[in-house]
Amino acid sequence: MKQRLAAGEMQIGLWIGFTHPTVAEITASAGYDFCLIDGEHGPNDVQTILAQLQAMAGGSATPVVRVPIFEEWILKQVLDLGAQSVLIPMIDTPEAARAAVAATRYAPEGRRGLGSALARASGYNAIADYATTANREICVMVQAETREALDNIEEIAGTDGVDVVFIGPADLSADMGYLGNSDHPEVKAAIEEAIAKIRAAGKSAGIITLDPNALIYYKDIGVNFLAVGADITTYGAAVRELSAKARKDLGL
After folding, report:
1. Which residues in the chain belong to E strands, given as ranges?
2. CA–CA separation, 34 vs 134, rounded Å?
3. Which of 8, 29, 31, 41 is catalytic?
4. What is the set of domains in the chain, with CATH numbers?
5. Angle at the Cα of 84 (from 78 to 87), degrees rounded to 5?
6. 193-247, pLDDT tens digit by residue?
7. Are the C-beta atoms of residues 134 and 109 closer than 8 Å to each other?
8. Prediction pTM value
9. 20 among known catalytic residues
10. Cis omega (within 30 of 0) for bond into 212
11. Which of 14, 29, 105, 149 could cross-link with 109 by S-S, CB 3.0 to 4.6 Å?
């Protein structure tokens, strides 16, 4: 997926919040390019993330893990679990972007601790060259979701080692004073400008939408890493629709 994104190809995916390996297993074979395990707002820990990564191993979708916060220790654990693509929230400055990249790289390029002999990432030491090849294979996605981040978007996108800059529309709209209204014209204009700058820097631009009617809009403004929905909202809408239809049809 890192290579496809670097080539500018569109990649679509689904947010995974249920924390259950069966859901991850089903979704990984449902036709998406990626499935994102949410460790920031989903009730995940390293054990549930591991179980979902294992369940997705037979699927066609690339696993992406969003860590709960930018801390070196959690990135180290998630990478050792075998995640090759990570989304790091609340990156507001180029300094934070550089630190995030460093946390995913072994020395001398970064600060990631060596422990791959014991890790799933190396096939439990079956991949002999893991430590020498991992740096170029990890896909680093940083999340810009504040006005400060947008003010620094060109420098963040220009950071060596950043592959994707992902706009967080909900937090951004709140930070701009439009809580719950990510479709406000000022928010949309800010997102469009940010995406243009990200793509101009030669990096991929990401976002999530729960509106199926917005997909073409996001493609047209340059997004090429697009989360088109979430498992929880999809399930919730489906079961409510089924209940309402059954009651209507049965006259209840």
Report:
1. 11-16, 34-38, 62-66, 85-88, 139-144, 164-167, 204-208, 225-230
2. 20
3. 41
4. 2-250 (3.20.20.60)
5. 70
6. 999 999 999 999 999 999 999 999 999 999 999 999 999 999 999 999 999 999 9
7. no
8. 0.96
9. no
10. no
11. 105
